[in-house]
Amino acid sequence: MTEKIRVLVVDDSAFARVAISRRLNAEPGIEVIGQARDGIEAIEQTKNLRPDVVTMDVTMPRMDGIEAVERIMQECPTPIVMLSALTREGADVTIKALELGAVDFFLKLSVVSPVGNEEETGGLMEKLAAAAGAKLRQQAKGERPRRVSPRPARKRASQIEKVIVLGSSTGGPGALNRVLPLLPGDLPAAILMVQHMPTGFTRSLAQRLNSISEFVVKEAETGDYLKSGLVLLAPGGNHMVVDKKGRISLDQGPQECGLRPAVNVTMQWAAECFGASVLGVVLTGMGRDGTRGAELIKKNGGEVIVEDESTCVVYGMPKSIVEAGYADAVLPLPEIAEEIIRRCKVGSKSVVGV
Predict the structure, then answer these.
(1) Which one, 123, 176, 331, 335, has the greatest CB density within 10 A?
(2) Alpha-carbon distance 109 to 352, whole Å?
(3) How many Cβ atoms from other residues are within 10 Å of residue 334's Cβ?
(4) Which of 9, 36, 5, 30 is nearest to 132 (CA)?
(5) Can you give the pTM of this predicted structure?
(6) How far apart are CA 283 and CA 306, in angstroms?
């Protein structure tokens, strides 16, 4: 018999705590072992009860969800899934929580029914299961997301020698926060980035990453062009494709691997358009998205780097690529940026106009 996932529910609303607990307890693989009404109680209960996963509200009195995440990750690292409102403020705060160590987030559907009906709650159950098996990095006290001083005018290389397709999912925002700041702004590369997120959250992620990177990071729009020193992030709900001239298009075509945006779709177009000049990079994430794309990159002469299991929050997407035999390099997260830089210093001709 499989052991149940033990969950601590944190929310300042008594109604929400009861509603969330009732819905989770209705699932055969979940057991709610405690409730907390603010961040202070969340820290105490996490230390005392040792749950497998914490569901964390964002806005609470005395101590909000952000400070609670930071303290828990410092004092008693525990997988945390944020329950977030679909608002601009909610998106900004959620991205910060993910940077600080929260594993994932789930959108609160309404005040009356925070996690929805049985069908709607399926996504939360999947996230809780993944979080329960997540590998966490204990955050040192006082540690903050890294900041860099951008070079004047974000100096760019004169040409693009590599088109990098960077994909991630569960644990991705934290991983990206540790990779992008290490890439020099004059790297002769353009980056197409796909992070599995719903509509409304990718813009906040792009803005946060832009503030810590020498690359310019923006949410992609139809009509954008690849440029050296530029990261284009696929917007939630849209696949991101590119043509041979480096022009970006967004579409809402069929989901792949149950996802839109999907890493596979962007990798496919990049591989077909730029062949051996494509470098695929896949970081932590659940599922198999990126495997078909990695295969196409390899078939067209490109290269693939994936994150090693030792640093992945969830070793799903990289594992699938490794097992399929498509990885040229398998490296822990702190070594990924250095490997990207090494593989971009080829001195070849520009693959697309800048």
Answers:
(1) 176
(2) 43
(3) 11
(4) 5
(5) 0.89
(6) 6
Three-state DSSP string of 335-347: HHHHHHHHHHCCC
Q: Where are the alpha helices (DSSP H) in the chain?
A: 14-25, 39-49, 65-75, 88-100, 122-132, 172-179, 202-210, 263-274, 291-299, 317-324, 333-344
Positions marked active-site: 169, 196, 289
Distance CA 232, CA 240 (A): 9
Delineate the domains of the chain, giving CATH numbers in brackets: 5-132 (3.40.50.2300), 152-344 (3.40.50.180)
- CA nearest neighbour of 286 among 261, 325, 257: 257
Q: Which of 303, 296, 247, 251 is nearest to 277 (CA)?
A: 303
Tokens of 157: 């290389």
AA letter at 351: V
- Is pLDDT of 142 > 70? no
> Dihedrals φ, ψ of 218, to 5°?
-145, 155
Structure tokens at 80: 């945390």
- Taking only the tens place, the pLDDT of each residue in 87-100 is 667 788 899 999 99
